[in-house]
Design a protein that fits this description.
17 helices; binds pyridoxal-5'-phosphate; oxidoreductase; Aspartate Aminotransferase, domain 1; 7-stranded mixed β-sheet; PyrdxlP-dep_Trfase_major; about 475 residues; Probable glycine dehydrogenase (decarboxylating) subunit 2; Aspartate Aminotransferase, domain 2; GDC_P; 3-stranded antiparallel β-sheet; alpha/beta
C-alpha cells in the first residue's frame, strides 16, 4: 500500500483538478434557474473532492482491497451461503439482449427473455416440488411476505378470518417473525428441544383454530434437519393451517429432498444465495415463491405463461394478491440463477449438496475439540459452535470474530441463533477447497489457544486492519457520513 491508499479522498483533493474531459458544448447552455424552482437550488457549491481520473480509480481500488468479499477470501457467514459466483453468470447477464431490454418492450420482441423466465419457473418447480412459481419478489424477506399474503388470501377466500397467528420456531431466521408481522399476523414462538429441533409437544400446545401457518426452515438455522417434518406437517394441516418453507438456503437439500414432498404449501428461495447471485452490500436479490396448486390463483400478477410456443405475461388473474414489485422481478439475478442451474445440470446440483454437507461436517468435527459443540449430531450445510469455554477465560465470541480479521477471514455469523449462548454459526459452502477449510480451522485453533495463553491478543483484536476495534453501537448509530476538516 502506498501513502495515498491510507488517505481520504478529501485529503488528496487539489483545487481545480478534474477527473473528466467533455467535448465542447454544441448546444445552448441552460441555466439551473430555468429548470429548478429557486428553493431547491443550493446557495453554496457542494464540497466535493477535486481529483484526477487516476486518483479516483486508485482510491476505489484501494477501498475495494480493504473489503472482504467472496472473490477475495473465505467467507463462512452462516445462513448467508457466501459461495463462489461463477463468472459465466456475469457474461450471460451482460448479453445485450438481456442487459439492454426494457420492461415496456412488446412481448413479441422479448420472447427469449420471457422464455428464460418461464424455463426458470419450471426448473424451480422441479427443484422445490411445488406446482407454480412467481419470480417477482426481490429478496428472501420479500418472498416470505408474498407467501404469507397468499396464505392470508387463501384463508380469507374460505371465510376463515379467525386465523391470525403464524407459528415460528425460536431458531428461525429473524426475517420470519418480521415478515409475519408486516403481513398483519401475530407471531407465536415454538420452542426447540434439546436436540435443536422443533419441540413437537410445544407445537401441539400452540397450534389451534387461529393458526394461519407454521414458518419453518429445514434444515433449521442450527444446520439440523427437522426429522419430524412429516409429523409437523400433519399437526399443522389437520388444524387447518398452511406450512411455509423458508428455503433461503437450499444448499443442504438441493436435488436430494424437496419441500413440496415434505408437505409444504409455500416456499421461497434466495437465488442470491444457493443459486449464486452475488449478494452482500444490499445488492439486488431474487426471492421466488413456489406454491401448491390450491394457492396458484393468489400468486402475484403478471405470471410468465406459455401458449402454443408463445410466451406472455398473464395478467388475467382475478384472485391474485396483485403486483409485489414493479415490472417482473430482478431479471438480471434471475438470468444468473438460470445460467447456474443450466450449467450445473442435475448431477452438478446434487454434488453441490453433497460437498456443502461434507465440508460443514468436516469443519465441525475438526473444531469440536477446541470449542463447545451444543448439538453433537451430523449437521447439514452449516453448524453452530459455542464460545462458552472461551467466555470463561474472558474472551467473548465477538473477540474471536474480531481476531479472525487478523487472519484475513470474514467472521462467521455470531450471536445467532439466539437459543445458543455465545453462538458462532459457520457455513463453509461447497465451493471451498480442503486447503482453504484447513487454513481456517488452523486459525480457529490458534485463537482458541490464544484465549487460554494470551487472551489480551484476542480481546484487543483486530491488530492488522486499517480501522481497529470499533464501538459497534456507535458505528451503527452515528456513522461518519462526511469528512470533516
Ligand atoms: C438470508 C435469509 C433470509 C432473508 O433473505 P433476504 O434476501 O436477506 O431478505 C431469510 N431466511 C433465511 C433462513 C436466510 O438465510
Amino acid at each position: 500500500m502506498n501513502n495515498q491508499d491510507q488517505s481520504l479522498i478529501f485529503e488528496i483533493s487539489t483545487p481545480g483538478r478534474i477527473g473528466f474531459s467533455l467535448p465542447e458544448m454544441d448546444v445552448e447552455a441552460v441555466s439551473i434557474e430555468d429548470i429548478l424552482p429557486a428553493e431547491y437550488i443550493r446557495e453554496e457549491a457542494a464540497e466535493l473532492p477535486e481529483v484526477s481520473e487516476l486518483d479516483i480509480m486508485r482510491h476505489y481500488t484501494a477501498l475495494s482491497h480493504r473489503n472482504h468479499g467472496v472473490d477475495s477470501g473465505f467467507y463462512p457467514l452462516g445462513s448467508c451461503t457466501m459461495k463462489y459466483n461463477p463468472k459465466i453468470n456475469e457474461n450471460v447477464a451482460r448479453i445485450n439482449g438481456f442487459a439492454h431490454i426494457h420492461p415496456y418492450q412488446d412481448e413479441a420482441v422479448v420472447q427469449g427473455a420471457l422464455e428464460l423466465m418461464y424455463d426458470l419457473q419450471e426448473h424451480l418447480i422441479e427443484i422445490t416440488g411445488m406446482d407454480q412459481v412467481t419470480l417477482q419478489p426481490a429478496a428472501g424477506a420479500h418472498g416470505e411476505w408474498t407467501g404469507l399474503m397468499m396464505i392470508r388470501a387463501f384463508h380469507e377466500a374460505n371465510g376463515d378470518s379467525a386465523r391470525t397467528k403464524v407459528i415460528v420456531p425460536d431458531s428461525a431466521h429473524g426475517t420470519n417473525p418480521a415478515s409475519a408481522t408486516v403481513a398483519g399476523f401475530e407471531t407465536v414462538t415454538v420452542k426447540s428441544n434439546e436436540y435443536g429441533l422443533v419441540d413437537l409437544e410445544d407445537l401441539k400446545r400452540v397450534v389451534g383454530p387461529d393458526t394461519a401457518a407454521l414458518m419453518l426452515t429445514n434444515p433449521n438455522t442450527l444446520g439440523l434437519f427437522e426429522e419430524n417434518i412429516l409429523e409437523m406437517a400433519e399437526i399443522i394441516h389437520s388444524a387447518g393451517g398452511k406450512l411455509y418453507y423458508d428455503g433461503a438456503n437450499l444448499n443442504a437439500v438441493l436435488s436430494k429432498a424437496r419441500p413440496g414432498d415434505m408437505g409444504f404449501d409455500v416456499v421461497h428461495l434466495n437465488l442470491h444465495k444457493t443459486f449464486t447471485g452475488p449478494h452482500g452490500g444490499g445488492g439486488p436479490g431474487s426471492g421466488p415463491v413456489g406454491v401448491k396448486s390450491e394457492l396458484i390463483r393468489f400468486l402475484p400478477k403478471p405470471l410468465v405463461a406459455e401458449k402454443d410456443g408463445t410466451f406472455f405475461l398473464d395478467y388475467d388473474r382475478p384472485e391474485s394478491i396483485g403486483r409485489v414489485k414493479p415490472y417482473y422481478g430482478n431479471f438480471g439475478i434471475n438470468v444468473r440463477a438460470y445460467t447456474y442451474i443450466r450449467s450445473m445440470g442435475p448431477d452438478g446440483l446434487k454434488a453441490v449438496t453433497e460437498n456443502a454437507v461434507i465440508n460443514a461436517n468436516y469443519m465441525m468435527r475438526r473444531l469440536a475439540p477446541f470449542y463447545d459443540l451444543p448439538f453433537d449430531r451430523h449437521c447439514k450445510h452449516e453448524f453452530v459452535l459455542s464460545g462458552k469455554r472461551q467466555k470463561k477465560l474472558g474472551v467473548r465470541t465477538l473477540d474471536i470474530a474480531k481476531r479472525l480479521l487478523d487472519f484475513g477471514y470474514h467472521p462467521p455469523t455470531i450471536y445467532f441463533p439466539l437459543n445458543v449462548e455465545e453462538c458462532m454459526m459457520i457455513e463453509p459452502t461447497e465451493t471451498e477447497s480442503k486447503e482453504t477449510l484447513d487454513a481456517f480451522i488452523e486459525a480457529m485453533i490458534q485463537i482458541a489457544k490464544e484465549a487460554e495463553e494470551t487472551p489480551e491478543i484476542v480481546q484487543e483484536a483486530p491488530h492488522t486492519t486499517v480501522i481497529k476495534r470499533l464501538d459497534e453501537t456507535l458505528a451503527a448509530r452515528k456513522p461518519v457520513l462526511r469528512y470533516q476538516a
